[in-house]
Amino acid sequence: MTPDLFDSIDAARPDEALAEQLADGAVVLRGFALPAQAALLDGLRQVVAQAPLRHMVTPGGFTMSVAMTNCGALGWVSNRRGYRYAPLDPDGTLPWPAMPRDFERLAAEAASRAGFPGFVPDACLVNRYEPGARLALHQDRNERDFDAPIVSVSLGLPAVFLFGGQSRADKAMRVPLVHGDVAVWGGPARLRYHGVMPLKDGEHPLLGRCRINLTFRKAG
Ligand code: MD3
Ligand code: FE
Predict the structure, then answer these.
(1) What are the domain boundaries of the chain?
(2) pLDDT tens for residues 145-171?
(3) Which residue in 10, 86, 111, 208 is a FRET match for 145, CA 20 to 30 A apart?
């Protein structure tokens, strides 16, 4: 194993005791979202009531196993013509719901803690995994500006995250992510390949048989 893997950053400072550096630019903050969990679940309910979760189709014609929706000024959408960020929900043709303040605040605090101050996300992609759902290895490169990090918040059932390298063939490390974990991916980690292993069945006391992942981006 890489020697510095899972080393705590600045463990002497109690407020940073939970930061694990996976690689240059990639930090996991264990349990960082737990104090905000009630507000996050509240916001989530409001978002999915306005913009329902749906299974999008990839340009290759496959229906994704992960169900998605968005909030914020821009939302990630996919169809046969390609992937892009769009200001309107293609299903409702209305703007995406506003990003709840508590979402934006948590994302900015996590980014700052990980060394990316001043993060103002304009897009929050909501991914819902049911048992068996997975996300194949990919890069996130539809955002305009790769200098901004991506912040991801895991809620509900645990998942195994695959964190690969700069090329698809690089061996991926497996990172368990559980309810309340927040990960920040920026700088040299921003374009690394990543994915999520098929979700194992289980029952989460707050979310039931699913995992929700929120990813905050500066897309526009
Ligand atoms: C590492 N979502 O929506 S978030 C995605 O758990 C996505 O739903 C996963 O990948 C999920 O695009 C993983 C963590 C993540 C997001 C972006 C990254 C990890 C990343 C960009 C570069 C490296
Ligand atoms: Fe991704």
Answers:
(1) 19-217
(2) 999 999 999 999 999 999 999 999 999
(3) 10
